[in-house]
Amino acid sequence: MCSNAIANDENEEKGRKINKPLDANSLICAGPQYKTVKNLLLWNVSFIDIVMISSPMGILGLPFLTRNRDFSAKVYATEAAARIGQLMMEDLVSMHKEFRQFYGPAESDVPQWMKWDELELLPLELRQIIYGTDGTEFGGWMPLYSAADVKTCMLKVESLKYAEEACYNGTLIIKAISSGLEIGSCNWSITGPKGSIAYISSSVFSSTTAMGFDYKGLQGSDVILYSDLSSCNAPDKFDDDNNFSGAAGNNFSNLSDDDITSAMLLSVDEYLEEMEKLDFICSCSVDSIKAGGSVLIPIGRLGIILQLLERFALDLASENMKVPIFVISSVAEELMAYTDIIPEWLCRQLQDRLYSGQPLFSHVDMLKDGRLHLFPAIHSLKLLGSIVGQLVDADVEGVDTSLALLPFKPMAMKVLQCSFLSGMPQHIGPLENSFPFGYYSKNQTLHIPYTKEYSEFDIAVDLACRLQYTTLKQNDMDIARLKGELVVEQGRYRLLVGNEQASSQTKPVLHFGRLDLKVLQMALQKMGLNTAVEEVRSADGTQTASLVHISEPSKSIIEVTEAQTLITTADENVASLISQAVCSILDCI
Amino acid sequence: MAIECLVLGAGQEVGKSCVVVTINGKRIMFDCGMHMGYKDKRQYPDFDLIPDSCDFTSSLSCIIITHFHLDHIGALPFFTQNRGYSGPIYMTYPTKALAPIMLEDYRKVMVDRRGEKERFSSEDIVECMKKVTAVDLKQTVQVDKDLQIRAYYAGHVLGAAMFYAKVGDAAILYTGDYNMTPDRHLGAAQIDRLQLDLVITESTYATTYRDSKYVREREFLKAVHKCVEDEGKVLIPTFALGRAQELCMLLDDYWERMNLKVPIYFSAGLTIQANLYYKVLINWTSQKVKDTYVTRNAFDFKNVCSFDRSLINAPGPYVLFATPGMIGGGFSLEVFRQWAPCEKNLVTLPGYCLAGTVGHKLMSAKRPTQIRLDEDVQIDVRCEIHQLSFSPHTDAKGIMDLVKFLSPKHVILVHGEKPKMAMLKERIESELAIQCYYPANNETVCISSTHHVEAGASDAFLQSCLCPNFKFSKPNSERDSDLDDSNKRTIVCDDRVAQGILTLEKNQNPKVVGQNEFMEVLGVENHGVKFAHCCPIYLPDSESRDASGRSPSALLRLIFEQLSRAFPGFDLHDCQEQIRIRSFVGSFCSKEKCLHRTDVSLHSRVTHLCCSWSLADEELAWKVLSIIKNLELANAS
Questions:
Q1: Are residues A150 and A51 in the same domain?
Q2: What is the CATH number of the domain that holds A376?
Q3: Among A52, A489, B106, B383, which lies 20 to 30 A Cα-Cα from B113?
Q4: Structural domain tally of chain A?
Q5: Higher pLDDT, B212 or A64
């Protein structure tokens, strides 16, 4: 399981009449509650073994899980995703604290507005948000985690570098491979002795900020699990509801470079498109500023914000305008300071700045010469009183802008909404013909059979040299008994020469194969034993056994059936001769 | 399968580190350094000794550079630009960022100041660095299908890394230079427990043991403080990177604490520039430095400003950082010539100076002294000399700790002095029982490498391997008898043994299956080989009158007792009507005509014990039978 998006708070006042149209007065006025994945509560948390975090945003719901006492899973995230994610959570907690100061501390976990009779009175739009469109999401609402929850949550996260091998339980090698979506965001490669899985979430081939999509790191996987497919080219099988669906391709090994080049061509468009959007936002902003207004930009994806700051620095300088830029967040300072020291997580263009001795981002210089200011909260900024806003850029996906702006209506401010979707999905269509594809939807467990029946297994050479092979008479095959000490490390099973003293009893010799009577007679005759064969038939006439009689030197009988040979004799020497003859014909180990 | 290790530099010496290792056909060059002590062809490694030296690009799979010091990277631009290597080169991000500064600085000193013929130009450095792929710590890099490399934190200088390389089952570690104790700006080397065939380690301090660095640091600070208090000037010759920033951090911090206002200067603009790199790369420093980056980046030196040449003879105390570190020429020598005659001044010397440099001469000098620069120039040295004794290299304990922790199959020592290396080799071989070598330059060491046979294992087999195999034992009580009962613990060991069947078919990978499933897997049926014998027991006549007197169960008990006596070590079962020892089963046969009866006896006082056993217990069974046959029934009654 990966990310849990948190839906926005419901700080809206409740409406009294059911059919009243939605306006600012109908919103609920209370401390916010937060929504996680609707079925999180249905999970037995203790059954989760591993949690992988694919992006900084993807960690925001994690404390809901980790604060559960039964939670014992290993959590993997990239270092950058964990750090930025932690800052985002801390920001969320401090924002929530402000709400609490405003609305007063919550009297219980279930606020007044969540009572049934109160809910019934809400306008339809709000009820849909609260219950979900299919009415199943009410259970997903939770009070926010505390700062302490965030801290304990972070202690449970094992942070990784890109392409660092983490070994889970000796058997799985887990690697985070850069996905390009955001600083620190990643796809996952999971390799075990029986096969490998690649988990691909939103990925961007050539990103403007983060290190790009490293598809090579995922090559050769047995199964590719796609997530976060955007709907543009998605097959009709998807319900609108299942917008998280992806495809599971089997045998997606040997993704050749040819396949990728076609994808790379598309990625250029992708890059340009993102650039165009950024340019557009900037030019709109400059227009607003020229007209004497201010620009308000809600902080969404960090990469976009950093890019916008780069742009503003350029655009404002070229227009020869000196306009202060403020970043207001309780973690603004830490976030900006962190972005200055992570060249390893950035795209090539930004890394080149390191090599040429420049700061990674222009905001370093902007902060120095007073073009950019960081403030922890809006009230710490005394200047703002007289500013008249002109424009809002929302680069947040999945938020209903009209609802978000409802409390402030009527507004004279211009609103610009711009969503930065991420790449990946368009290229999948044509591949569908060349690889087996399966589709999955929410809440459905998909079983994908292993492509290999046998696990990869290494035998130490010194052990292998000691093996005593027997060649089977019937199959063209050599077999040998194998004994040693099994070691599981770095995702591999290894058999080493074991401690001889510790070895348990050797298993008895096993015989198998068919005992051919004629061959047996010949073998016995060679030993000087004369034989006579008698067939034993059951009542219906089918043969059940053969008896080989030996009269000299002592009376003996050999009863041969499909499954066993029974030697009856009172003479030890004869017994030994016969068993030698029998064993020489059978295969044994 | 073998690993071939050709030492092209730093063999029984310090300088021009370069080792070419061939692992299962993949050839890697670790470091490509230059020797600062030579100006002839000995300055560079003898690249012609590399096999197929006409085409290095195809001969070498990759080059790995551990850190930015010239004795590890100095020959790289020459190798790529003059000798035509154009294959992949790997180094960490800081090394890629800082190496060009180092190389350019060196080139300037050599060409511009000393007027030597240049071996590579500024453009060569730029072009060379373009071919470099930067790697992060622990990032697993797949160089090609078979070769995997990974960097580990090495301490030493910013961005220094040890490199792990793996081809197939064979794996090695090349440490480069490293430090096993953290210092004020860098952390200690960190490594995973790896399965290694070979560790190639530096051995600069093969026999030295050092105490805490903090004491030495305090001595240094005191010496500097005393000098400036007495109105003297302090000259700290360093290279542009590494030591300069470390000492600067020390001083900056000390200045803050002691509230000193004496200026600290950096001689070249270059070094100030270098601080900027350090600021961005702060994640590669020690944890303590890292933790404070938000409030104040430790490389944002508050008390440091850049130097102007006119200040050399300005009155009043100050501290000056100047390159190069060993006072081999350049600005540091220029300043030293002016300051050395004054007793109030102080010059610090790095821990290691190459022979021939002023630094080296000063190390052994007693004040006051005279140093001859060349035939015409002689300097009077009256100033204080403080030798920095903290070194970013590990000491002997660190080397031993690392080798012991990694427990590789072989160790090769490089980057050290021959007699000390010999002593360390002895220790490694005697204390750790690991084979150790210290080849001279241009020698090759060949070692065997690990190799596994690849097979496939079935689930049932792997499952069966996980079965516990508990053994309980009590420690020998004799010695423990005096002790409390509480000490008489039972020792439980669980030495699991994996047992299975390996099957080998033509043109297929070997497969391993469990003992219980292999018949099914092979498509064969088990065929039991068993024996049967319906053994007559002749009852003595005395019994005959009262046959009912001895019931079969009584007889059975009698046999059982006898057998117990004869086979004390075996687990006998007396199950009412049967006797069992392992697979041997005997029970009274009431049949008139038993198929397993071979004797045709007319004896009337006979009863039969019908026995069967499997092949494995053949020997045992015949012994049992002979006892039964010779039962002394008469006596027993």
A1: yes
A2: 3.40.50
A3: B383
A4: 4
A5: A64
Beta-carbon separation of A511 and B595 below 8 A: no
- Distance between CA atoms of A484 and A495, rounded to whole angstroms? 6
Pairwise CB contact (< 8 Å): B526 & A457: no
Sheet strands (E) in A179-335: 186-192, 195-200, 223-226, 247-250, 294-296, 325-328
Residue A242: the pLDDT is 35
Residue A323 lies in a domain: yes
| Top-tier CATH class for B213-387 | alpha beta
CA distance to A304, B30, B68, B142, B344, per residue, from A345 (Å): 15, 26, 21, 18, 50
pLDDT at A406 over 90: no
| Residues in chain A within 8 Å Cβ distance of B500 | 481-483
Q: Do B497 and A504 touch (CB under 8 A)?
A: yes
CB B86 within 8 A of CB B131: yes
Q: Which residues of A touch B595 (CB under 8 A)?
A: 557, 559, 568
**Is the domain of A1 the same as that of A144?**
yes
Number of A:B CB contacts under 8 A? 256
Q: Is residue A502 part of a domain?
A: no
- Please tell me the distance in Å from B273's CA to the nearest CA on chain A: 7
A240 in a structural domain: no
pLDDT of the residue at A245: 35
- Please identify every residue of B annotated as catalytic: 202
Best mutation target, B300, B527, B609, B613, to test chain A (most A CBs within 10 A): B527
Strands B369-372 and A294-296: unpaired
Query: What are the DSSP E strand ranges found in B474-605?
Result: 491-494, 498-505, 511-513, 528-538, 572-575, 578-581, 584-589
A162 chain-B contacts, CB cut-off 8 A: 136, 139
Q: Which domain holds residue A30?
A: 1-15+26-157
Q: What is the secondary structure of B424-450 as a DSSP string?
A: HHHHHHHHH--EEE-PPTT-EEEEE--
pLDDT at B108 over 90: no
* Mean pLDDT, residues B542-555: 58
Q: Which letter, b or e, does each residue of A294-325 get, where b requires 16 or more Cβ atoms within 10 Å of its Cβ?
A: bbbbebbbbbbbbbbbbbbbebbeeeeeeeeb
Cβ neighbours of A456 in B, within 8 Å: 454, 456-457
**Residue B388 has which token pair?**
């920095």
CA distance to partner chain B, nearest, from residue A163 (Å): 5
- Whether residues A371 and A472 share a domain: the answer is no
Q: Which residues contact A410 (CB under 8 A, 6 or more apart)?
A: none
Tell me if B155 sits within 8 A of B161, measured CB to CB: no
CA distance B635 to A225: 83
B32 vs B54: CA distance, rounded Å: 18
B491: its two tokens: 């020792």
Instruction: Give the separation between CA A530 and CA A519, rounded to whole angstroms.
Output: 13
Read off the pLDDT of each residue in B349-376 and give the average, rounded to a whole number: 80
Whether A223 contacts A196, CB under 8 Å: yes
Q: Which residues of A touch B531 (CB under 8 A)?
A: 566-569, 575, 579
Tens-place pLDDT, residues A275-294: 888 888 888 888 888 888 88
Is residue A589 a contact partner of residue A510, using CB atoms and an 8 Å limit?
Answer: yes
Q: Which CATH superfamily is domain B2-209+392-448 in?
A: Ribonuclease Z/Hydroxyacylglutathione hydrolase-like (3.60.15.10)
Q: In chain B, what are the domain boundaries? A: 2-209+392-448, 213-387, 456-475+490-522, 530-636
Which range among A288-292, A341-345, B360-364 has the greatest average pLDDT?
A341-345
Q: What is the pLDDT of residues B147-187, one digit of tens each?
A: 999 999 999 999 999 999 999 989 999 999 999 988 878 99
User: Is the Cβ pair A483, B498 closer than 8 Å?
Assistant: yes
Q: How far apart are CA A290 and CA B251, in angstroms?
A: 49
A236 at B interface, C-beta within 8 A: no
Q: Which CATH architecture has domain B530-636?
A: 2-Layer Sandwich (3.30)
Q: Which residue of A has its CA nearest to B469?
A: A504
